[in-house]
Amino acid sequence: MFQRYTGKAWEERFLPRLTYREIAGLPKEEALLILPIGAVEQHGPHMPVMTDALIGEAVLTRTMEVLPEEAKVWLLPPLAYGKSNEHLDFPGTISLSAASLQGVISDIAASVAQAGFRRLVLFNTHGGNTDLLNVAAREIRISTGLMVFSLSPGSLGAAHDLLSDEEKEYGIHAGDYETSLVMAIKPDWVHDDQLVREIPDLSGLDFLTLEGRIRFAWVMSDISSSGALGDATQATPAKGELILERCAATLAQALQELAMFEIGQVRSVQREEMIVPEL
Predict the structure, then answer these.
(1) N or C: which end of the chain has fewer CB within 10 A?
(2) What whole-number distance in Å separates Cα of residue 255 and Cα of residue 90?
(3) Dihedral angle sign, alpha carbons of residues 265, 135, 111, 149
(4) Nearest partner of 173 among 237, 214, 122, 218, judged by Cα
(5) pTM, entire model
């Protein structure tokens, strides 16, 4: 079971547990800092409002256990709050404004750059943060020169063969995927007797989707009465454990690549065509 601030993630790779002199002496050329960003927001009648932040911490805790010791990867303190105003119709949601969240992340990034680090991962576990973080990443790149990466564990494909097609399309909030994970991470935090299945009705619509071809703006109360989207009744702790294991394995490989990445290496070089004079 997940326990906060235990294991290699927090004893060996948690940057703030070091002194400023130790941090000054760290080799930074190939170092990578990770800023976990989650949310505190409602997740239906069966899940804690801490779900997104909890999943982020648990995935990173597990990942650090399998990351090679020589990898220069460091964790920053998790930022639990996100932009969650789409859930404010439900009690317990605590949201930052878009401007506040971007400002906090930008200030953290500026401090990271000031300390001499060169790479920063915005590790996101709340879908409502995604668009903002993509904008923030580019602004940080411009203002600080940092190499900035936006990463969500949900994009790693760890559950591609574990979810139904319907769940992949609509299970975006407190459905099978997230419920299974929390069952594996903190089983006592899930109300098994209140699991819900709620699928929005987009029948008859050829182009509009929740997340895909053509999107429409929504808040959760527009599309769900329970606050959940997906089929949590299909969730199991075993499925969550498998997702967690797969996420950690893939993420450990990805972080090593990010730590070695140099943005200059992807720049294309225009080749001038050789002009052959006519005879």
Answers:
(1) C
(2) 36
(3) negative
(4) 218
(5) 0.93
